[in-house]
Every structure is written in C-alpha cells, then in structure tokens.
Amino acid sequence: MLDRLRSLIGAENVLTGADMAPWCREWTGHYRWTPLAVARPANTAEVAAILRLAGESGTKVVPVGGNTGLNGGTYAEGALMLSLARMNRIREIRPAARVAVVEAGVVLEAMHAAAAEHGLAFPLTFGAKGSATIGGVISTNAGGSNVLRYGTTRALVLGVEVVLADGRVMDLMGALHKDNTGYSLRDLVIGAEGTLGIVTAAVLKLVPAPRAYATATLALSSLDGALTLLNRLQAETGGAVEAYEFMPATYMAKLAQHRPDLRQPFAEVHPVTVLVEVGATAPRDATPGPDGALPVVTHLEAVLAEALEDGALLDAVIAQTEAQRREMWARREAAAEITFTAPVLVDTDVALPLDRLQAFLDAMTARLAALDPGATELVVAHLGDGNIHYTAYPSRDDLALQVEIRAAVAEEAVGLGGSFSAEHGIGRSKLATLQAHKNPVALDAMRAIRAALDPTGVLNPGKTVV
Amino acid sequence: MLDRLRSLIGAENVLTGADMAPWCREWTGHYRWTPLAVARPANTAEVAAILRLAGESGTKVVPVGGNTGLNGGTYAEGALMLSLARMNRIREIRPAARVAVVEAGVVLEAMHAAAAEHGLAFPLTFGAKGSATIGGVISTNAGGSNVLRYGTTRALVLGVEVVLADGRVMDLMGALHKDNTGYSLRDLVIGAEGTLGIVTAAVLKLVPAPRAYATATLALSSLDGALTLLNRLQAETGGAVEAYEFMPATYMAKLAQHRPDLRQPFAEVHPVTVLVEVGATAPRDATPGPDGALPVVTHLEAVLAEALEDGALLDAVIAQTEAQRREMWARREAAAEITFTAPVLVDTDVALPLDRLQAFLDAMTARLAALDPGATELVVAHLGDGNIHYTAYPSRDDLALQVEIRAAVAEEAVGLGGSFSAEHGIGRSKLATLQAHKNPVALDAMRAIRAALDPTGVLNPGKTVV
Whole-angstrom Cα distance, residue A406 to residue A346? Predict the structure, then answer.
C-alpha cells in the first residue's frame, strides 16, 4: 500500500515515522494517535487516486486541514492521514462577481489577505485563523466571531469540489446565489467532517470590506440587558453589528489572572462585559467629518450615550485607535488560551435560542454546584448567535464527574431547545452525546446517508455518526 | 385503501371525483392529472399514519401546498395527493428570539401579517404569496424578490419537522443560529420537493421589519451599468438594498401592451429599467427630517442624483407615496401574468455568476435568432442574485423547436458556469435537463440519498431525480 502510494504522489509526500509527529496529536494534546502514514497530495486527481487505492487495500482515510479542531475529528490510529496543505492555491478572485475560487489547503488568514487586496473580505474569522484551512472550515461548518452579520461557513460557500469515498470527483463549483437543481449536496458536505467526501476546492463568497470599524467595550448588568441592547444596535445600524462578544465577570477575572498584560477595560469588574464591533461599508459612515471623527464611530458613541443615559448601559469605552481596537480583540481572542489553563476541565460549546440563554446559565450554575460544590465556571459567548462556550473546572480529578458535568451541560441545553454542539461539531468526543440527544430518526437518516455515500466505510471512521 | 384512509382522517377529509378538481392541474394548466384521492390531514400524526398506510398498500404520495409551482412538481396521476392546507396554525411567535413556529399549511401572506404584528418581518416574498404555503416554499427552497438582502428560503428556516417515507417523524425544530450536531438534514430536506420527506412544520427566522422604504424606478443604458450601480448602492446603504429588479426594453414593451393600466415610468423606453427598494430599520433613517422627508428617501435621492450627474444613470423616479410604490411593484409583479400571454412559449429560470449575465443574454439572443429568426424574447431578472427569467416566444407551434430552445438556454447557462434552474426547481419538467447537465457524480449521490431515505419510492415519484 505505502509503496503504491509513494509511486502515486512521490516518496517525499508520504510521511512516516518521526516525520509524522505534527499529525499524531490534536493541538490541545487531548487526543493522540499513530497513523499508518501521512499523504500530502498535490491536486484533486491525486486525492482521487489515493481514495481509490485506499478502497482497494481496505485502508481507512482521515483528512486533516490545519489541525485546530477540539473534538478528535482527526484521530487516525492506524489510518492513512490525508493532509491537503500542499493544495493551497487561490485559483482566482473575481471582484465583479465577488467570489474566490480556492483550494482546500488555503489558510484562512491567507484568504483574508487575498480578498483585502481587492477591497473585499472573506468575513469568516476566529482565533485559529493563522492555521485553519478552507477545507477544515468547510468540513466543520466553522463559525467564529462574525456569524452575526455574515452567517457560518455554510452561508459563505457557494460551491465545493468533493472527492467521494470511491474516488469519483463531485464538481459542485458553482459561483451562484441561487441554484435549485436537486438536493443541496453542498450543504450536506459542509459540516460532515470528512465523512461523506474530501473537500478539495471551493467557491467562496466575498463581501465588501468595511471601510471603517467602530469598536467598543461595554459594561452591563445582565445578559438579557445585553441582548436588548444588541437588538437596539442592530436596528440603529441597519444590521451592521459584526461581533457582539459576551464576557461575564468570571471571564474577566480569569483574564486578569492569566493575561495581566491585557489591561482590564474598566476600573471595576461589572457583571457583563461585551465587545461590540460595527462595520461600515458606506462612504458616508467612513469618511472623517469636519471634527476629524469617523461618522460610524460618532454614531455608535451617540447610541451608547443614549443607552448610558437611560440606564441600559453601565459604562462604555470606544476604541479611538487601531491599537486600542486590537487590545479589545486580544481580550476576547485569549479565550482558548485562558480556557485550557487548568489540567482538569470540561469545555463545551452549546447554542440556545436567544430567549433561553440566561435560563441555561442559571441552570448550569445550580447543576454544577450540586455536582461539585468546589467547581468553578468560565463562560464566553458569541451572544448574538446564542452560542455559549461554557467551561467547568471541577475541584478534583475525577473522570466520572467530568462525564457527569458534560452530560448535564448537554441535557440542560437540549432541554431548553438548544444544541450540545454549536460550532465545534461532533468528531469523536461527542458521539455519545449525539446518541443520547439527537432525534433518533435523524440519527438513522444520518447513518443511511453515510452508508449510501461511503458503503465500505473508508472515510474518517468513528467520527460524526456511527 | 380509501376506506382505511377515511376512517383515519374522516371521510370529509378524503376528496375524490369532482371534489378533487382544484388539485387536478398545475395553475398554468400546463400539467393535468387525475389523482387517486386528495387527503387533507389535520396534524403531523395523521400525516405519519397516512404515510404508513401508503407504504403498506403500495400507494404513491404527492404532497401539495398552494399549487403555485411551474415544473409539474405536484403531478399526481393515480397517486394520493396530500394537501397540508388544514395544518395552517401559527403555533408561536417569540419576538425576543425572533422566531416563528408554524405549520406547513400557513399561507406566506398570513405569515407576513403575523410577523408584522410584532414589528418583525418574514422577508421571503414573491408574486404567489397569497396562495403559496410555508411547506411549499420550504420544499422548493423558494426565492423571490428579497433574496438579495435575506437569502433564499434556506437562509430563513432554522428548523423543520419532517415525516419520512416510512411514517417516522424527524424532529429538527431547533430555533438555533448555530447547530453542528451532524449532517444538515434540514438543508437536505429544504428544496427536495417532497421526495425525501413531507415537511409538516418549521421554525422560521424573523427579521426587524423595515420602518420605511425608499423605492425608485431607474433607467440605465446597460445591464453591466446596472450591476455597477447596485454595488454602489449596497456600499452606500450598508447592504440595505432589498430588491433590485431588472426589466429590459422587451419587458416594458410587453407590459405596455398587456397592462396599459400600469403606466410606463418614463416618457421614453430605455434599454434597462430597474426597480430598486432600500429598507430602513434604523430610526435615524426612518424618522422624517425638518423638511418632512424620510432620511432613507433623501439619502437614496442624493446617491441617485450623484449617479445621474456622473452618467451612471439615465433617469430615475422615486416613489413619494405608498400608492406610487405599489404601482412600481405592480409593474414587476405582473411578470408571471405577462409571460403567459402567448399560447406557445418557452419559459426558463436560470442563474449566472454576476459577471456572466450579459454574456448569457447576448449568447441567447444569437442562439434564438439562429434557431427561429421570427422568435421574440422576454427577460426579467432578480439582478443582484444573478437570476434571469428568460422566456422565448417561437414564431411557430413546433414542439421540437421548443425543446431545442430550452436545451439552448440550459446549455448557454451551464456553459457560463450557471444553473438551468435558479429558483423553480426540477419537478417533472426539468428531469431531462438535470440528466444532461448535472454533474453525473452528483446525480448518483442524489439517487443514493433518495434510495436511502425512501427505499420503496413512496414519495413524489418521477420528480427531482430519477
């Protein structure tokens, strides 16, 4: 098998032994494995040939992008890993049609830079943007900080090229905003974690890059107050709020502890801190006025002043320079780093209907106290999407307790009409939760579809649905 | 079978003979059929029971909503039709979460009215809104006039309840903006034309209702000029353009001929007429200024004045009253009516990448002239979506010629990277076109998925993919 693979894509592109080290663990170190080998194909035809070879030899194949996942989605014990890193070409940017045609291995940050050269933006963004690849974001339907305005990956991908388990290439590379020619196979493949096919290329939707931002850090007394203010900001800006990131007191305390370099935004710690960013595409909002101020900033200031006046807001600070804006974002982007500071933790990623967010947090505080009175919590949220990253730190190293806490989070979320995996997906770590909480008819439908498209089970075994 | 059906849902809800008349034809009359019967279930449990009964008796089932389709999607010769008209309850509207929970039989216009009571909007809209139902718009992934700002149906449906072919109920009724718990079965069912399951209920996304509109009719010299102006308007309004409807000279001439009551907007006929509408959600744009004018209107006037000045625009008229706005819309909404005026016509619905629209129209004019020098064309388009409704009127009643023209339209669209069915779907009429132009691997994948979810072929046979 490996010899045939070497002759197919070149020996230098088949890594084994110590050369595979970077692909033998998830970045957090939580999952570790030893693959059969790591193949680095150069193009779609090579991916197809590898899958045909894998099918013939009964080899399992696990695709990998930037290795920034959190659910063991690339666990590959004994399997052939397929890294798309060499397929990193931006084939074409068509500014008039506002699309980019790219290969799966393009790093998200490189895509941002390429779009910016045309005054456009690919607005999907999150902490791991420097490593995460387009193939990975598509396979996980990645979310991040700008979902509020631009949607998740699914809303930003117009077309995909997918190699099926049997090596056939499914070309769905349309650059179209409307296409009702049968089932939306594109939407099915997006978020399928490489279990239905290997994404090799995509047509991405670009948007006008904001000409200016108004960014502020807000202090509020409650989550519901923050949501009410968000609706007000959305109306006032015509839906131009790009990010609305929720950081409660527990988050700010942990930030102060682990990143004292990132100063606290206010002299005192308020119950709720929010990072808000408004993006202005209109020249009328992004051209400095007679006083030298940007109208988008002046407008946000006026709306926030009104909210301070009528008590909707406790305090606010607006970024006056790009450095101040970067500092505000650094506080939020430190989330992954400050979450994984303790050796024992239960990190989760839930979504709730917007009118049930506070109920979930209240329920979890009570549940956690009942399960482990000494435990602490850390919460950070993409509030406008109803997406909460809830982390519990048990007071003792007890695997059974961790399992109980994780189950409680899923149960409370699902009980309130929510999801136990908002943006991190299923991978390997949430299979049992999926089994417990997904509608059983939907589970069966998933299994039937997987079996229909990959009857011999070549692709990413033991992930997403079993 | 019919006796068991009558005892299941009540004899008065099983229509046969003359009582079935409204369900024996598509509204255009192009397709006609005689169903076995029409069943009108009252709830999801009855739909499930009917499907179990159909499975046992080998009866085919064709779901029907408002009967406003154009592709024979509800053709039901000898089959049991399943009308969801009685399931027309709006179960719940939750303004804080901005969602509505509704049954499949709710008429689109009723949904508009219900959302409006809360200062919100369900923004999907098109000519047939007075008859089309939520189940129908979901099953066809309907588009319409506001896709530019709000997306197609897929972007506006957060959750669905679906009865599978075997009568099991798949509950995917989440009110969530992020939910990565496995394959997006919701997206798979949306647009599947009732071939993968019967949609019985849905969770719809609501948006803030615009507080005011600025609506104008524009005269331009070219399509590409219209697109450039659209990009300018989008930037100037921060993406608040809700509709940008393209009506070339052929359209305006046909309108003058068939609907002289709808006055022409300009003294002379220009190459391109566009209906543009901007929706203002912000109080700052929708509160009359000192001069009594709405800022959203004043702003559009200013942008258009600038465009007139620099030659991007030939002429423009802005609606000053709601009656004038209605009149502008009536000219566009007459499209279906003025299209179906001739006994012999080839109506199509294609999508193109935005930078290939003019190339498509040029190619078709040449192709049509070559095929039938006496033929005429009618074009109307949702320009910002790249969606063109192209209709050819052959000079003679020749079925082979119609087939040739239809094939030429599909071929030119696909050749330019476009779609041969932007929003009308496949139904029965476009099966051959699908076969000819869809990627064969995608076709196989569709067949495999259909067989996996409906192994005995109960649901809507002979539609979407065969």
Answer: 7
